[in-house]
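quick one, two chains, predict together pls
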Amino acid sequence: MSRTTATVAASLPDHWEELVTAALLGTDRRVPPGAAPGPQAPSDLLDGAAAATVRRRAGLRPARPAERLRPAPEDPRPPLPQAAARRLGALLADRPGASGAGRRGAAPDLMELLPQWLQAANARGYAAPPQALPALLDAARGRTDLRPAALRFAGPRALWLARLNPDWRFALRAAPGGGPSAPDLRDPQGIRRLWQEGLFAERVTLLTALRSRDAAAARTLLEETWTTERAEDRLMFLDSLRAGLGPDDETFLERALADRSRNVRATAAELLSALPASALAARMGARAAVCVAVDRTRDVPTIVVEAPHECDAAMERDGVAATAPAGRGERSWWLGQLVEAAPLGTWPGRLGGRTPEEIVALPVADGWQGELHAAWCRAAVRQRDAAWSRALLGEPSAPEAGGPGAVSLAERARLLATLDAGERAAWVAGFIETHGLSEAFQLLGVCAVPWAPPLGRAVVDALNIARDAGSYPWSFSGVMGLAERCLDPSEASRLDALLAIPDEPEDAAPGAASYWSEAFQRLVTTLRLRGAMLAELAPEEPAP
Amino acid sequence: MTDRGVRRTVTRAPAQTCDAASDGAGEAEAAAAASPPPVSPAARRRAERRTERITAGAAELEQRLADLLRGGLISAAQSGPALWEETAARMVDAQAPGLAGRVRDLGALASAGAGGDAPVRLLEECALLHLLARAWLRRDRLPEPLAATVRSRVGLTSSPEGPAIRDDWLVLAQYDTSDGRLTTRRIWLHGTASGHTALLLSYGAAGRAPDLTLPAGLAVDAELTPYPGAGQPRMALTERFGVPVPTTVRPPGTTTSGALARYGAALRDDPWRESVPVTLDRVQPVPDGDGWQLADADEDHALPVGAAARSRPGLWRLVALSGGAPVRVFGECGPRGFTPLAAWPQGPGEAVPLC
């Protein structure tokens, strides 16, 4: 007892050790201290041990403290409003396994709301309540998608805490500046030392953090050691320049085109082609322009394509992969890469002064349309060109927009991401009004949260139509889940009419009506909850 | 708060509730919850018969303990758990659930193996069991408060008596333990005006949560009635006057030495006490090998955190709340260390439950 817990004053004359020995061996073999051998010995032993036990317990003294912890760094952010702190507790308590609930029924899925809650709390710059940090770290441990927002909200004390518990090591790896030797980004010497001596992961983290703060400083740091880095490290470091890419990076990237590693060269070329004013983009534009022209001799002006006949050394140096994947013709493979990397601004001049819409509308001879349009799509995404994206997306209500046209849903989702949020929402709303929800999931995923009113209305109307048509609601569970998280909470009141269980149409799937009602109920409950949740995070009004 | 509210009795402690001192004995009693205090001649005869059976049981237990020590604890360990199970069953037959519970705990301790301080703990528990059986056999020579404690420890029921205390009671902690047959809920309260610390015990059959629930961190205006027994903290909630409300009051704290002194003093009234409720002020959680300590911020002293508390998520909440700075912590302090149950930050803030 005295070893593992508090210590006892050593001076007590209680013969404790002898008592323990006699008890273990038995009084027949060992006469306890202060007792005579005989039938009375066990009782004497127990009397002595009882007195000693109570005396030892009464005489307990505190132990010496182990080495104390260094205090956690201050978190200067303001504390959460009380209601929001309670809400956070409820969201964190709803982790899978914590409740063991299988089917959700009409109850909201609180864990799915945590990302939104964290985003809102971070936007307002609140500090996490210290006692919530363990649950927050556990949640982030289980879900990597939560980590960036959770760790940002958790703040400096969470990193302090994570050093004490091996379960939370991930936080030290994931957080910029989380490592034990993390330098202050305003301390150039510390940065240089970590860059020179740090482990690979620490260096990537450092470079990424510095890049988001001072793009030029990060590039300069990388240039210093560039020639001494291993090929796979160079690739990762180069990739971190993707954030904050600008014309100033061109000289460095142009030099990387001569790298020993093919992957490094390809990445450098890809980054350069995202800079339409770069020399590489101009070279690619010139090559691509040779291949694509308008034939005015036909009845209708038509685009004709003459794909390149060879992939020369200069093309390879500019990142064109010479070997086509199995099953693809080399010439179309080369063409795709040239058009993809050519500045989109090349085309109106090359193709008779036409606008992007007019160019996309031109017929393309000899079956080249798929290849050409797909390459333009990739270029529009890479160069984040809204005008071309708009042209390639076309009208959302066009019949071919719903079918497997030249532009796949995944490509459309990427094109949409280049448009501003309002335009994106309007396009997807138009798409849903014409084509329904079955193809819309991927497109909805790129829309800004909360959904703009026209988009929200389109989704609710489409769900309503699907219910009236007697479809099973679980065919739409993906969209339902998105709607719970993304519909504007103020739409909840307009959904009340959908909560009633309607008469089942004759051709309806049996039992579907009550499932629909339950799904809508959960939708409304979740929206109300989100409304309350966001209101709690609003700054507290000063008392009137 | 209460003047506006309607006075109504929310909970009246049922006469059936059993008594216990702070720990352990309660479960056994509740399982064997017996008759209300004897009133009729028949009931009195029943009570007398029960007393005789307990006396016979205590004498038999003494004999068994003597046999055990004569042969030694090592050889007893070789005979396996049947020895303890049979003895526990005999104590149940003797209607002494408090003795039966202690014997079962001894069996668990014996089967846990001989590693670490197991032999020491085994001897301690044997000695305290012997002390209890002996105290029962000579209870007529004990002062009445101690005799009441002995009756309660052996497993006889009693009813709350003594002057009721009305106060705004801060709910410090609420937690459940279960032995498979019975769920025991402990609720610790701090009287914000009186300064009393009170323990409410309630029970639920296996798998069912006990009825009484009070929200930790809030204060409730209520009347509590103490149970008999010297120095024991158990009370019954006899009347509630309002809904729980937030409070800024915190129990006053002491140092780690103060906490151990309080435990030592409590043993004077009840040598079977396993822990006392204590609030530590200005302590810091400190990692110590595989475990943790609570160290005085201003003195070179520390208490180990009890083994059971080490694996609970509450310990990490405590560490996070502290951030290396001193905090105030309420918990149970005993010979195996300190079990933290609630904590307050250095600055303003509500109680943070740790259990």
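The longest strand of chain A covers residues 292-295.
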